[in-house]
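Table S2 (text version). Query chain:
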Amino acid sequence: MVGLGFDLVEVDRMRRRLARTPSLARRLFTDGERAYCEATSDPSERFAARFAAKEAFMKALGVGLGSIDWHDVEVVRSDSGAPALVVTGRAAELARSAGVSRWLVTLTHTASTAGAVVVAEGQPG
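Corresponding structure-token output:
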């Protein structure tokens, strides 16, 4: 294991931020992430979980806010329906430099809280 990240997000806070700043969803989430979340009855829960995953990704990589573009980490669904990460751009460069070859991610959410755990696997650089 190269790194481990964990993050929690309050769903109501995400809901308020998205309502107050409609452009925020476009800035933080890819087209695919937005389409998935917006197809549900309460997109805020899923947006919050994906935001938590991006934060957990940075923690697993040992970098802070501003180190990567939010779109460089995308939460997708694998064929089984399990979440997976697609890592591109600067995030992929940092991951390669750190020796990361595989990402594991799990998401969870309730009506009030969303969480994510991200594990970076590989050989430390």
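Notes on Table S2: Helices lie at 11-20, 24-28, 31-38, 43-61, 89-98. The chain has a mean pLDDT of 94.
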